[in-house]
Specification:
The protein is of the alpha+beta class. It is built from four helices and four strands. The chain folds into two domains: about 40 residues, no CATH class; about 55 residues, no CATH class.
Length: about 110
């Protein structure tokens, strides 16, 4: 039997701290305490990801501010293209800023 699932972040942190204090492996501790080891391990991974800034290879991600620049009459601006680690994002010049924020949020979660 797999054991009980972890209910929330507080439950996960309590179980992870107890497992660490016991110096047993996560799987061994989980079996001994009737906890689903897969559930606890997924919580561990998610909490570790939240712990600090995301890394992109050996370099930390950098914030780049994009500021709209007015164009001269008669001049058209082409689409903006952004290529990052195999992902390409393209937006037209008159993009909806809120939609772009949501889209970038989705990309950041991957």
């Amino acid at each position: 039997m797999a054991g009980r699932r972890i209910f929330n972040e507080q439950d996960a942190r309590r179980c992870l701290a107890a497992a660490k204090a016991s110096q047993a492996g996560l799987a061994e501790w989980s079996r001994a305490h009737g906890v689903d080891g897969r559930s606890l391990n997924l919580w561990r991974l998610n909490l570790d990801r939240r712990g600090g800034p995301r890394q992109c290879g050996a370099q930390a991600l950098k914030l780049v501010e994009l500021v709209p620049v007015p164009t001269s009459p008669g001049r058209t601006r082409g689409p903006f293209r952004l290529h990052i680690r195999g992902v390409e994002l393209e937006v037209v010049a008159d993009f909806d800023e809120e939609a772009l924020r949501r889209l970038v949020g989705v990309l950041k979660s991957c």
